[in-house]
Automatic annotation (TrEMBL):
Domain RagB/SusD: 319-469
One Pfam family matching this protein: SusD-like_3
Predominant location: membrane
PROSITE patterns xref list: PROKAR_LIPOPROTEIN
Domain SusD-like N-terminal, residue spans: 101-231
Homology family: Belongs to the SusD family.
Gene Ontology cellular-component annotations: cell outer membrane
Subcellular location as annotated: Cell outer membrane
Organism (species): Pedobacter ginsengisoli
Name assigned to this protein: RagB/SusD family nutrient uptake outer membrane protein
CDD domains noted in UniProt: SusD
Keywords: Cell outer membrane, Membrane, Signal
């Protein structure tokens, strides 16, 4: 296999499919060295399925890079404190004034989007190449062919939408470059154009997919749920409510009862809509010790007493929004070993000491849930409030509060909207989405004094780009406005 990653452009466009698959070689066996790549790979459904599996694997790796999934969604939202081992993360939280520009040793993950463009390029290839392959080359015929295209369209939209919420305006590519040796510089694309492209992909995906796929693969419900989120980000709340309705009213999903609450992260629960496989098995390497392990001490992690190597839950947050007694809190928070009254998050606690020859070797065998039904109920509450339906918003909010063991909320007006935001934070803490919720719902100034009027106007909630690395490859690239002088 002689084709290697060629990062010829700022966004890390991978020149050929072969290069994008270097990180997941177990997924694909490439052709003999004397054959051209396209002629031997894009020929049947089995290879397309392998390429798609590679895309999911690349997304998992992208999220795990320096635990950036939780940095972007939870650390930046001040949900967690940081043990002493994480000195170079300290500027990301409130005590560091949310200074995302100072990221020593983390620039390659939090200030560089290249790894996500590898996924997008792979999805481009699947979407561009698959239609020309005869249906007879797919074990499941046209149905399987459509499903593979639909999943690739979902993933492409998911990644673009994710990047838009992290770094702001992206560089939008819509297809595979025909001449990877001559990729021209490109300016960043306005958010409206990127979101329109995401909506188009998701509409296509929802038409191509059904609900038969395992929840570690995209299906119709995940496409509809993501449509609701994109519309909410656009402040198009009528359409956001419409697609929330589609998920809630027309799917086999159901909220897990509180006694089974932790099943949500064990994999394939009745509440989950979309998740990434990170469970342990003896063959693959999907499970790791560090990704979910950042939240845990003993007794889950043997010998880990004290919080230097963990991310405990922010004590101020517990006092502010977890002050009422509730069953959910007792399930997902426990006292950290050696940390006094410090609490650790216990959503991800399936610790597996799998090696009989090494008693200290372990992985955390949980899945990463990207979309779930409680999220959509609360998103619909938000949309209903914005659509002038406070009574209906209360119904959705209280459905989640009741499951948690909280009394029904009764206030209306601004207090209701703020409570919906607080409930999202309570319900979804440690799931990589709080910061995006606070941005969308315009809650940052209410919660943090560092988010001044000027910082909000200059979109200082987005992360800066590593211009020293990326500008070399694209002379048209610009920095996010706030970070030009901060």
């Amino acid at each position: 296999m002689k084709k290697y990653i060629k990062q010829t452009w700022i966004i890390g466009v991978f020149a050929l499919m072969a290069s994008t698959l270097l990180s997941c070689k177990k997924q694909i066996n490439l052709a003999p060295e004397n054959a051209t790549y396209d002629e031997v790979f894009w020929v049947n459904g089995a290879n397309i399925d392998k390429a798609l599996s590679g895309s999911y694997s690349m997304l998992r790796d992208a999220f795990r890079a320096d635990n950036s999934y939780f940095i972007f969604g939870d650390i930046a939202a001040n949900n967690f404190s940081l043990g002493g081992d994480f000195w170079n993360y300290n500027t990301f939280i409130e005590s560091g004034h949310f200074n995302f520009n100072y990221a020593p040793y983390l620039e390659g993950s939090v200030k560089n989007w290249s790894r996500f463009y590898g996924i997008i390029t792979q999805c481009h290839q699947i979407i561009d190449k698959t239609p020309a392959i005869p249906d007879s080359k797919f074990e499941g015929g046209a149905e399987q062919k459509n499903r593979l295209i639909g999943e690739a369209r979902f993933l492409r939209a998911y990644v673009y939408f994710y990047m838009q919420r992290v770094w702001g305006d992206v560089i939008l590519t819509k297809t595979t470059f025909k001449d990877p040796q001559n990729i021209p510089p490109a300016a960043r694309t306005p958010e409206s154009e990127t979101l329109a492209f995401c909506l188009s992909d998701l509409q296509s995906a929802s038409a191509l997919l059904d609900n038969s796929a395992n929840k570690t693969h995209a299906n119709k419900m995940s496409a509809l749920a993501l449509l609701a989120h994109v519309y909410a980000w656009k402040k198009d709340y009528p359409n956001a409510e419409k697609y929330c309705d589609s998920v809630i009213q027309n799917s086999p999903l159901a909220l897990e009862p509180i006694e089974d609450y932790k099943k949500i992260w064990e994999g394939n629960s009745q509440e989950s809509i979309m998740e990434l496989n990170m469970k342990y098995d003896a063959i693959s390497n999907e499970a790791t010790s560090t990704f979910f392990g950042r939240f845990l001490t003993a007794p889950y992690i043997k010998g880990r007493s004290g919080i230097n190597s963990t991310w405990p839950i922010n004590a101020d947050l517990i006092n502010e929004i977890f002050s009422e007694p509730e069953q959910r809190k007792e399930i997902m928070m426990e006292t950290a070993a050696g940390g006094g009254n410090v609490k650790m998050l216990t959503k991800y606690t399936n610790v597996n000491y799998f090696d009989p020859n090494n008693s200290n070797t372990y992985v955390i065998s949980n899945n990463l849930v990207l979309l779930r039904l409680a999220d959509i109920y609360l998103l619909r509450a938000e949309a209903r409030f914005k659509n002038g339906k406070p009574g209906d918003a209360l119904l959705d909010l209280n459905k989640i509060r009741e499951r948690a063991g909280l009394a029904d909320y009764e206030e209306t007006g601004t207090e209701l909207f703020d409570e919906i935001a607080d409930e999202r934070r309570r319900e979804l803490i440690g799931e990589g989405c709080t910061q995006f919720d606070l941005i969308r719902m315009e809650q940052l100034p209410r919660l943090f004094s560092d988010y001044t009027t000027d910082r909000i106007a200059k979109k200082g909630y987005f992360w800066p780009l590593d211009m020293r690395t990326l500008l070399k490859q694209d002379e048209l690239l610009t920095q996010n406005e706030w970070w030009n002088n901060n």
